[in-house]
Amino acid sequence: MEKTFHITTFGCQMNEHDSEIMAGMLLEKGFVPVKERKDAAVAIINTCSVRENADKRFFGTLGQLKRRKMENPDFLVCVCGCMMQQQHVIDTIKAKYPWVDIIFGTHNIHRFPELIDNALSEKKKQTEIWPDGGEIVEGLPSKRLHQSKALVNIMFGCNNFCTYCIVPYTRGRERSRKPQEILSEVRTLVDDGVREIMLLGQNVNSYRGEGGIDFADLLYLLNDVDGLERIRFMTSHPKDLSDRLIQAFVDCEKLCRNIHLPVQSGSTEILKKMNRRYTKEAYLNLVEKLRKAVPSITMSTDIIVGFPGETEEDFSETLDLVRKVRYDSAFTFLYSVRKGTPAEKYEDQIPEAVKHERFNRLVDLVNSISMEKNAKYVGTVQKVLVEGPAKTGSSIFSGRTDGFKLVNFRGNADMVGTMADIRITGSNTFSLEGEVL
Ligand code: SAH
Ligand code: SF4
Ligand code: F3S
Fold first, then answer.
1. Are 186 and 197 in contact (CB under 8 A)?
2. Confidence of residue 2 (pLDDT cuts 50, 70, 90)
3. Phi, psi at 274, each rounded to 5°
4. Closest residue to atom 4 of ligand 2, CA basis
5. Which amino acid residue places its CA nearest to atom 2 of ligand 3?
């Protein structure tokens, strides 16, 4: 058998990192990655369940693989990720997409190499889903997407059960890695050329490591790692963002002055129905506290439009909150019904046309603020970690500022992985333009 593979990844950074781990395991088995799925002997699709369009794209992709499988029965189709933790999805795959060879979930990606071996030696389909995460498996290899920055899981799962959200069902209960495991992984990454890490967890604020180490403690420990230059994290839930975390922004020079703080709605009434456990006022106070302690901090958020029962008045509270906070950027989503979540049963679902109309108004507001915020950077000099060409082969390179602003500038391959001083010469809604000093 030809040993080539291709991974298609849907969803968030958790999935992105899981895909890096699967790539790492396949490389260890002598497989090589190929750029196009059509050239691969093993195709892997890592799925996301968070909204309905993610589901739809997955089934569309599976449909496309049927012909390939008919032409070449040795071609292996593997599916994994959050959708596989939902029984109805497994049932649909078995009934309608019988050309799938290997099915596994979010809790057992370390078992993937063995499942491939079994599929090949037994010439039989493999399905292995674990209902929940057991002991955290350490020491898995990973093939990073970027040479100079890395994703680092600090915890898995979620206990918050926001009423719209599927993640607690697909990723299981919260489990934190040991601080020593995280530190030793980060040291190894730094030795391998990594300068920036992004700490991952559905709610990093509830990290609880061995020895009573909390998230703020972990940041202080990581701030002392020699050779590491930048620390970011994602995501932090507003309900338990501590004063000590705010203080960490002041004390830890490696911690980037940027926070993603999902608000979801500006209406206290809707927040209650979402089970978010904070009010509009509490959120605004938190923002004020953060800005007082760290005036240069940039902020982004997630907002859901059209949650069941959202009135025009509730929605205007969201617009009001956005005007008050003035986010650097915001991810806006149309509420999407998820099977098995409490909000699926709520009767006052909002008509699609109303959702879209509100969504458009929100996006216009968010974008006009982003534009104004970005314009303020023109004329300043920013330190940017150079990531690579903006497009393959282009002489325009891109990187991020400390505040997570994307900057495009004329550069060269030697700059990749270095910190460059860039003078900002122009601004757009989603990026800045500059020139190397
Ligand atoms: N743990 C992260 C979020 C993970 S999901 C947090 O709590 O911030 C990423 C985003 O998807 C959420 O912040 C939310 O805005 C959005 N989202 C989740 N479920 C959704 C649904 N059913 N419909 C629309 N958007 C949803
Ligand atoms: Fe979903 Fe809420 Fe958990 Fe985030 S905190 S993953 S939105 S349930
Ligand atoms: Fe992430 Fe989607 Fe799963 S957002 S945790 S890949 S449902």
1. yes
2. confident
3. -80, -10
4. 202
5. 48
Supply the DSSP string of 232-258, one letter for each residue. Answer: EEE---GGG--HHHHHHHHH-TTB-SE
Token readout for 398 is: 């891109």
- Tokens of residue 372, six digits: 């104004």
User: ∠ CA(255), CA(281), CA(296), 5° rounding?
Assistant: 30
Residue 169 burial (10 A CB sphere; 0-12, 13-18, 19+): middle
Q: How far apart are CA 211 and CA 186, in angstroms?
A: 19
- Distance in angstroms between the alpha carbons of the first and the last residue of the chain: 51
pLDDT tens for 180-213 read 999 999 999 999 999 999 999 999 999 999 999 9
Ligand 1 proximity of 302 Cβ (cutoff 6 Å): yes
Dump the DSSP string for 116-134.
Answer: HHHHHHHT--EEE--SS--
Closest listed residue to residue 399, CA positions, set 264, 243, 412, 113: 412
Whether a cis peptide bond, with omega within 30° of 0, leads into 425 is no
**Pairs from 133-140 (Cβ < 8 Å, separation ≥ 24):** 133/106, 133/107, 133/157, 133/171, 133/172, 133/173, 133/175, 134/107, 136/175, 136/177, 136/181, 137/110, 138/177, 138/181, 140/21, 140/24, 140/25, 140/109, 140/110
Q: Do the beta carbons of residue 405 and residue 398 sit within 8 Å?
A: no
Q: How far is the CA of 65 from the centre of ligand 2 (A)?
A: 32
Distance of CA 83 to the CA centre of its chain: 16
CA 14 to ligand 3: nearest atom: 1
Q: What pLDDT digit, counting tens, does each position of 289-302 carry?
A: 999 999 999 999 99
Model pTM?
0.97
320, containing H or E segment: helix 312-325
Burial class (CB in 10 A: 0-12, 13-18, 19+), 60: exposed
Mutational test site, ligand 1, from 10, 14, 50, 154, max ligand atoms within 8 Å of CB: 50
Q: 258 CB less than 6 Å from ligand 1?
A: no
pLDDT confidence tier of residue 393, bands split at 50, 70 and 90: confident
- Find the mean pLDDT for residues 274-283: 98
Q: What secondary structure letter does DSSP report for 106?
A: S
Q: Tell me what pLDDT residue 391 has.
A: 86
Beta 406-410 vs 432-436: how paired, if at all? Answer: parallel
Residues in the chain: 437
Helices (H), 52-200: 52-71, 87-96, 112-122, 167-171, 179-191
Is the confidence at residue 1, as pLDDT, over 90? no
